[in-house]
Amino acid sequence: PLSWQEDYDNSGLIVGNEDNVCKGVYVCLDVFESSVQEAINKGCNLIISHHPFIFHSIKKLPPSDEITKILTLAIKNDISIYASHTAIDSSIIGVNDILAKELELKDIERLVDSQNTDKNYLGIGAIGYLSKAVPLNKYLLFVKQKLNIPSLRYVGKDDCKVSKIALCGGSGISLVDDAIEKRCDLLLTGDIKYHDFLTFSNKIAIVDIGHFESEQFI
């Protein structure tokens, strides 16, 4: 449900007519001009993306801008574009649940407390558990393999044991206080800044797995 999206988000139907008859659906993580063209080529008149291609307010549409190109091509060809973003981030079968299962975490639960009592609502972020505690460096080697990434940026003692793990697909460093409060051993997310590593280095192990990499499975 769109009611699950965060206040800052722009999920939902971004361009198009909701009364159009759907002939085909093109699914992607991000929308580019090439995405719209491929949808057209495949006979799809609805694009469902994870990220909204319009996120902030727009005051100008210069012809060279990627957003302008997307809008122009979509409107001329009657293509509707819908973004799910934080609404599907919050689903019990959404971004974080899928990532947690790829990383072999069990007993998935909410990371952020919420008054939403819907059993299908997980919220932004999640907590999962390993079947047994393992050294941080050993688990991160496993994470690299599962996400198919050559390197990780992290802070934490290599030999410290981790079993209770917080994670958030995309940019989730804002949830680090929740992870610390819930006594998690490790926070996995993307887009972590240098000073965030420094600030929380003595409180919790943190690893930057990359924004795309954390959302690739959805």
Q: Your description of this structure?
A:
The chain has 218 residues and is an alpha/beta fold. It is built from 8 helices and 10 strands. It has a 6-stranded mixed sheet, sandwiched between helices. Helix 2 (66-76) links the parallel strand 3 and strand 4 (80-83). The two termini are 17 Å apart. The mean pLDDT is 97.
Largest sheet geometry: 6 strands, mixed
Summarize the amount of helix as a percent range. 25-40%
Query: How far do the termini sit from each other?
Result: 17 Å
The secondary structure category is alpha/beta
- Proportion of β residues? 15-25%
Radius of gyration: 19 Å
Q: Unreliable segments (pLDDT under 50, ≥5 consecutive)?
A: none
The overall pLDDT, averaged over residues, is: 97
Strand order of the largest sheet: 5-6-8-9-10-7
Sequence of secondary-structure elements: EEHEHEHHEEHEEHEHEH
How many β-strand stretches?
10
Question: What are the key terms here?
Answer:
elongated, 218 residues, 4-stranded mixed β-sheet, 6-stranded mixed β-sheet, 8 helices, alpha/beta, 29% helix, 10 strands
Short description:
This protein has 218 residues and is of the alpha/beta class. The protein has helices at 33-41, 66-76, 85-89, 95-102, 136-147, 176-181, 194-200, 211-215, and strands at 12-15, 25-28, 46-49, 80-83, 106-109, 126-135, 153-155, 161-171, 186-190, 205-208.
Give me the secondary-structure topology.
Elements: E1 12-15, E2 25-28, H1 33-41, E3 46-49, H2 66-76, E4 80-83, H3 85-89, H4 95-102, E5 106-109, E6 126-135, H5 136-147, E7 153-155, E8 161-171, H6 176-181, E9 186-190, H7 194-200, E10 205-208, H8 211-215
Parallel strand pairs: 2-3, 3-4, 8-9, 9-10
Antiparallel strand pairs: 1-4, 5-6, 6-8, 7-10
Helix pairs in contact: 1-2
